[in-house]
Design brief:
The protein is built from five helices and nine strands; from the N terminus they run E-E-H-E-H-E-H-E-H-E-E-E-E-H. By secondary structure, it is of the alpha/beta class. GO terms for molecular function: thioredoxin peroxidase activity.
Length: about 160
């Protein structure tokens, strides 16, 4: 399976960017995966309990170990706007360990066919992404761990370490 090329709005925390401005950078999935070993994982939503307390922090804490095994890029996708993703990055204290990617309109999520309909939930999340973790090499998916519903059983950083 090849990963579809869809643009994402990403705000990097780099010293060359003024943190007081909204300098969002657009990157494509192909630029994150071409000629690289990439882990792309998705969460149902920024600031949600499992995503904020387990899933993303797990990848942040294991980033050095993943990179020591040849991973070039670690990126998290969520159906949230870029402003929310930047606020979440700051809240979690993430530097450059994991890129937080905004799939604001759910285009990438839709093309992968991994939508999670949460419109019936009382917190008003709408349509989001199922939780998953992909290991891709040069844009080709080598491992896809796709969760059912909002479960968190096989898409962790530890699961990706086992797959490497």
């Amino acid at each position: 399976m090849e990963i579809f090329m869809v643009d994402f709005l990403v705000k990097y925390k780099k010293s060359s960017l003024n943190p007081a401005t909204n300098d969002f950078k657009t990157v494509t999935v192909s630029s994150l995966t071409a000629g690289k070993k990439t882990i792309l994982f998705a969460v149902p939503g920024a600031f949600t309990p499992t995503c904020s307390q387990k899933h993303v922090p797990g990848f942040v804490s294991k980033a050095a170990e993943l990179r020591s095994k040849g991973v070039d890029v670690i990126a998290c996708v969520s159906v949230n706007d870029a402003f929310v993703m930047e606020a979440w990055r700051k809240d979690l204290g993430i530097n450059d360990e994991v890129m937080l990617l905004s799939d604001g309109n759910g285009e990438f999520t839709g093309k992968l066919g991994v939508e999670l309909d949460l419109r019936d939930k009382p917190v008003g999340l709408g349509v989001r992404s199922r939780r998953y973790a992909i290991l891709a090499e040069d844009g080709v998916v080598k491992v896809l761990n796709l969760e059912e519903g909002g479960a968190f059983t096989n898409s962790s950083a530890e699961d990706m370490l086992k797959a490497l």
